[in-house]
Amino acid sequence: MELLRFLTSGSVDDGKSTLIGRMLFDSRSLLQDQIEAVEKSSLKKGDDFFNLALLTDGLKAEREQGITIDVAYKYFSTPKRKFIIADTPGHIQYTRNMVTGASTANLMIILVDARAGIIEQTRRHSIIASLMAIPHLVVCVNKMDLVNWSQETFETICEDFRKFSAKLNIRDISFIPVSALKGDNVVNKSENLPWYEGRSLLHHLEEVYIESDINLQSPRFPVQYVIRPESQEHPDYRAYAGSIASGIFRKGQKVMVLPAGFETEIEGIDVYNGEIDEAFAPMSVAIRLKDNLDISRGDFLVDAGAAPETTQDITANICWMSSSKLKAGATFLLQQNSRRVKVRISEIVYKTDISTLEDISGVEELAMNDIGLVKIRAASAVIADDYRKNRFTGGFILIDEGTNLTSGAGFMRF
After folding, report:
1. Can you say how many angstroms the Cα of residue 234 is from the centroid of all Cα atoms in its chain?
2. Per-residue pLDDT tens over the stretch 24-47
């Protein structure tokens, strides 16, 4: 069954957690003990209603303040699709949390309060979606019940967003009016919106076309593990295991091992129940090669006829996640899929104002939650894939060598 990963975003009190709770509740994706736990928490808070937001606001601080702080993941399915939801914070000080949730998303839902319209946080979250190359965006105009289900209000918000988003890199934008609290147009079409002829939110999530989101034109296979059992049953078996990041691999295909540059041919492709002739992203497979080459974790198999460049000089957008500021000269470990190399920050080119998309040059450091363009020098070569063309090999993280904590998330630009 096909999997859709999506995240919710929006300003504080726009109803992100309530929307997810309503979706889970109305689609009958909750267990009885989950419902009982929310009922108890609602009574404890003094709410005189079933507070659906508590289904995702799991931290004690979130429940006390009524805001989302951490990224909450929820899983559910319908007969048509499986879903992974990331409920992300709306506060500017939690930009890094939103980037974490957005890094693997096919789609972003941006909630807009029908009474307030397009505000700064709406623009900021849309810019993050654009920077992170999220293919699909859904603008949910929430709390329509508080504006008397006004078609004029909804259409004004849609037009304002279209004008703003014209300069963003988002190819698919949809608009849906909802009332998360009352459940109108979330799972089922609402009788209160007779003028709206589109789909409900869940119906849209079930039908949005995501097959083309995966890059099938650029074969990339990061080696995660070398399988060498040396058993009596398999004395000479050697295969390279991992998940195909992009593209298609076939038996007999000529491939190149990067960064070494050796060429060979695929002898066979194995999965859990036997051998197959063809595999594609995001399948997990074990690839056997005709030649015994020196290949280990962190190497890449790519199509020999369309091999990407490798480089030690990287230009990338960075979302900084550490409390220690990023400055030129700092060293980190860069992890690109399974490949890990030591790097040095050569230059901070500019910082991006994520409320206006303005680039501010002349800055010497990036603080927590800042996003900027930096130049990086690697100790050894990495695959040079532009993030906008290949999200799975064009992204990376920077790891602090001393603490082993993730300090930043990067998106390559070539």
Report:
1. 39
2. 888 877 767 666 666 666 566 666
